[in-house]
Amino acid sequence: MPQYTPPLRDMQFVLHEMLNVEGALKKLPPHADIDAATIDSVLEEGGKFCAEVLYPLNRVGDREGCTYHGDGVVTTPTGFKEAYQQFVEAGWGGLGMDPDYGGQGLPHVVHSAFMEMMNSANQAWTMYPGLSHGAYNALHAFGTDEQKNLYLPKLVSGEWTGTMCLTEPHAGTDLGILKTKAEPNADGSYSITGTKIFISAGEHDMAQNIVHLVLARLPDAPGGTKGISLFIVPKFIPKADGSLGKRNAFKCGAIEHKMGIHGNATCVMNFDGATGWMVGAPNKGLMAMFVMMNSARLGVGMQSLGLAEVAYQNSLAYAKERLQSRSLTGPKLKDKPADPIIVHPDVRRMLLTQKAYVEAARAFTYWAGLAIDVEHKHPDEKVRKDNADLVALLTPVVKGFITDNGYESTTLAMQVLGGHGYISEWGLEQHVRDARINMIYEGTNTIQALDLLGRKVLGDMGARLMKFGKAMQAALAPFGEMSEMQEFLAPFNALQSEVQKLTMEIGQRAMKNPDEVGAAAVPYLRLIGHLVFSFAWCYAAGVALRKQDSGDAFYKTKLVTARFYFAKLYPETAALIAQARAGSQSLMELEAASF
Question: Which of 17, 203, 375, 442 is catalytic?
Fold first, then answer.
């Protein structure tokens, strides 16, 4: 039956042996006193909450789903509300939030690790507080002092939850054509009218209030994205002391019936002259919303890491226990009628693919979390800027590459179980369904690819990409004199060189034909993903080589997994380079009517 154990040993390996988080945090004044023991203790306790409280509700949420009562009221599955109260009472929601508003002020990297476990345990449930964190980030960055003092303590405590309301029925990714209106009122507020769809956690019974961040247009706003403003639109209008006032003029019109994440209410929200307050400057709403969107994109990558981890754990347990056929090299369990399926090479391929993707993604996402801490807390402005550039460059890779791999990993996990994987009681098919949305929302993975190649790489003539390349080389330099490292460093260095050449080629072609960017973007993002994972596996191998004689089998396993990655997964890069070089002609030659 389904199971989940927080992978604390590998989490500690990434945090302490790869990233040296304690040493890095000592350079950040707000976190200088945090030590490894404190981090481990927090994550151990957080893991208990995830495994013992959230995970048992995962199948419950999938089976029951949310219920729409016809009058705008939505109730969550059995146990969700009670689990949320435990979450709030324990203070987990404020883990990485500003102490000035009641948060615990722990580093973002610690919050990231906790979020991985939450997503492994129950992605649908985790989306409720996860979206609140994004709303907090946007208001913390762009809200007025009055707005911060009124809303942030409630979001930090978890008494209130938050959402982001972007998508409209006629406009998905293209926010420039949204129609929701914001009419100014005499008291400085605005009257918000319009319909938003696909609003995760838009209505529920878990918290006292829901704070919606809504994109809308002022009457005199210019067209396109330059005419979008952002507004706070709470379900209940708060009084000055934070107590709840009257119900606002909007409600949930329906909830979507979805392939997965059934335990999260995905809502149609109808705003009918609702009262809202502007966040930031007029017509500059996307600047504020992008803070929330980028937070969400990193969070979606963490969702897929979490799902891939729990799916891997369950497929591995099954492969060790399921007896079927004999090993090709002769019986391994002679006292049994068959051998466990883990003896078969292709079962091992599926398991090692999951393991390699999960462990590299963990290193990547925790590194991103630490980079965010450095970006915001380091005393040196140049160091802050360098880390901000790297986070901006790699955010679409976290979202796009990890969610693609997460879906592949959950599918492979289901395949390991064979027919049992297709049966609901084993839990694997739910992970596949839940993982599929992660490639779509918060900007489809094609949008992430266009953002990476068009804006983040070609947009600054490759400056951030070159900065990242130098950072990787500097990090790996201490391992350069180890002869055993050449089997890992050689393919990594070759790939970095190929990426440089390919980027220049695409840039030159794009100056003549912009479709070249669109044609190359998806394989290019996946190529950069492999560059990051190659770097992660080089670094992990370097650490493991130095400790392989310690007697701890963990390090041998790490080296074997690194070798598997370079032998079996890395070769995809050759095909990706060929696809990116193939250009746009074969894609664009047909007229639409000829399809």
Answer: 442
